[in-house]
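User: Last request for today: this protein with zinc ion, please.
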Amino acid sequence: MAKVPAPNYDYQTNQLAGYYRIAIKDILAELDRVDISDFRRANALATLQSISGILSDLDTKSARWVSENVPIAANEGVINTLVSLKVAETVEQAALIVKFNELNEAMVAAAIADTQADLLAVTQNVDRKTKAAVRRAVSDSIKYNMTSGTNGRRTIRDDIKKRLKESVVTGIVDAKGRRWKPEVYADMVTRTKMMQTYREATTNEAVDRGVLYAQISSHGAKDACRGHEGEIIKLTLEAPGDFKTYEELQATGEIFHPRCKHVYSPIRDVGLLSER
Ligand SMILES: [Zn+2]
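Assistant: Here's the final one, the structure of the complex with zinc ion:
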């Protein structure tokens, strides 16, 4: 039986993280140019405009990346089903007959919109924080000019510069209160979403073909996922048998966590179920 290669989106997600890295670097360079001794409203507006320009460029690039790459993951998820169920002999053959069914059409559209919204939240956060920091730098600049003595001034200047930089690099705080650099967060979000899209596309294609079970992939995981490698899952809640669904397993937090590389292959052979 033809083997479906493990999905790997490192190349694409690195490319996306690269967009973020470059944008952040450009914003930092912009903030570095700020002249503390003469930072007035007019200069601040120019700085903010440059930053807005960098971020809106980033939004455009990220949105395009998402609309190009999420369907690729879905496509490969469907191929996984076609080959696992022997509808196609090889991955190449499957690639020629892939078509998104209604479920997958809707899922892909939702996944694109979700991922774009998640990434937009990242840039909006950076935008909000840098704006606040730049405004504060204007009032600090006044303080700087009123301070006499080199040491006092140097301290104020260093503080301003430090705050400006921090506003960009510690961009995101997640629901659990953890801090993320914008590019690391964007990378995590897109890796997770690509895998999730792959899995859901696998399920949608299988269920449409009347297949209700699947087996979780194995790659010798070292984390909590390892206890679930090779496990049989059911693809719909209504499927008979004492098996967990993808969503139930995900809710345990043991597998299908952010960045998890595990997928599953649909199985038609119910005989496999009694072996468990
Ligand atoms: Zn895993």
